[in-house]
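Q: Could you fold this chain for me?
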Amino acid sequence: MAEAKFCTACGCDLQAGMRFCPQCGQVVAGSDADEEMKQRMAEIDDVLREGRMNWIFFAIALYAIPATIAGLFALVDSGATASTLWSNADFQNWISTHGYDITLKDVETYVAVAAGLALASGACAMVSMFLVFKRKMWSIAVIACLLASALCFWSVFGLFIGLLMTWMLYASKESFD
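A: Sure. Below is the predicted structure, expressed as structure tokens.
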């Protein structure tokens, strides 16, 4: 290990074996204290990285699980949901007020498409969530999260949060095997 002759922070003369500068307290580069500090900083970085990955996992799960369940139930029961909407007086007034030529079949189709989008978005988010949990296949996790976001285009808030999660996943490549 090469001993520094001058402090890299203040320029003070250093003697062999010094761990800290006697004038400013700076850790002497190349000393055992310097190596110890680098090791501790690496440990702190690992803890912070793991915390960020846990947060990403939780945020994706918070969307993926309810979106998948809601999409599945809405898709299975799309006819009943459409009938409920169709029989609602406020919905009928809205159609009349805006002069739309909408039929019950149109509403059924819309509900089925929306439910399918929600289910597909939730399923993509589930894939991303699983890969984040396993810390495997970073690129597929990012693509699945981006796809889940894109399929959630009907919700500005959902799209924004999905893109934020995608960006955070993209920036976390070092956390994956």
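A (continued): The chain has a mean pLDDT of 89.
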